[in-house]
Amino acid sequence: MSSPFRQAQFQHSAYSLSQLLPDEGREIAFAGRSNAGKSTAINRLCGQKNLCKTSKTPGRTQLINFFAVDENHRLVDLPGYGYAKVPPKLRQHWGQVLSRYLSERDALVGLVVIVDIRRGLTDLDWSLIDLVDEELPVHVLLTKADKLKSGARNQALLQARKELEPQGISVSLFSATSGLGLEDFDRRCREMLGLE
Ligand SMILES: Nc1nc2c(ncn2[C@@H]2O[C@H](COP(=O)(O)OP(=O)(O)O)[C@@H](O)[C@H]2O)c(=O)[nH]1
Ligand SMILES: [Mg+2]
To answer: Distance, CA 36 to ligand 1 centroid (Å)?
Structure first.
């Protein structure tokens, strides 16, 4: 499968809003609870093992990382949320940065929310989704699907569809380990970015 994301390259890290790249071109952002499998999913999408750092210790990604797909298209890895051990000050800092980025960024043309299929959507995921404009395309990726047997996996997909489709949010199954759902994930990302 030839995918534009295979050419993705690390471009820039930002710790605060003033450090974001200029608000130009098109980008899609990836968000999710710490340890949901976000970095692993981005690496698999891009066919690169170490584009994003993955970790067994949650709560480590503390920067907004930009990856260039080409001159006008970017992937943006947002800091994970929901990790209890993050000091309150830092949590507050990130809450503010995330909410302003998601609500004000003109270049943002889509949001991918990475969800551990065993956990399902949580209140924190919903409060993040609530920050973006109603018109913004949102996709929920149910990852680690390899961790469930096919019956439970399909049950989780149906449940998520029931919650998300009335809100106009698409959802798909994914496993970085087996590659399940990779083509759909790739297609949805290209669609949001307008890369065909
Ligand atoms: N079995 C399985 N493990 C996964 C999958 N995706 C991620 N993981 C594991 O989940 C842990 C957290 O992944 P990571 O990508 O660092 O999560 P992040 O905090 O959301 O960026 C790591 O130990 C990964 O190896 C998957 O699709 N299947
Ligand atoms: Mg990560």
So the answer is: 6
